[in-house]
Design goal:
140 residues; mainly beta; Jelly Rolls; five-stranded antiparallel β-sheet; four-stranded antiparallel β-sheet; 9 strands; 0% helix; 69% strand; elongated; Exosporium protein C
Amino acid sequence: MKRILDYKATEPRRSFNVAQPTMIPLAPGRVRLASVRIMIPRNSSRNTVELVATVGVRGITGISQVRFRIFRDGKEIFNTQQGIESAGSEQNYTVAFQAIDQNVSSGSHTYTLTAENRTSGTAVSVVGPISFSALAIKKS
């Protein structure tokens, strides 16, 4: 049997909108896209936190490699990378991924989603939507 310990979700951008882009900086710079805080109760050491993210991006110049990272309390726990093409090909992408964080200690934890461009000479922006959620489940 499993029991839900906590659930949080945020949607900083509800829809696609190229008129309000947020540039993704070249690494080592990064942009914070979303953040959620969950609470793990005492005596819940056997747990899983399922993290789900969706980010809409648009290639502006070249083929960018965008690295998405998830941090728990400032420490990186997950990353993935996605190539984003620009004009002359596909330009708009919705990148979705899931991460699993297991046996998280009791207390309050902040999960943060970031993005960075790993390819010099290219440009890419976030155009929405953005959603980020955390579901904490206690294993029996």
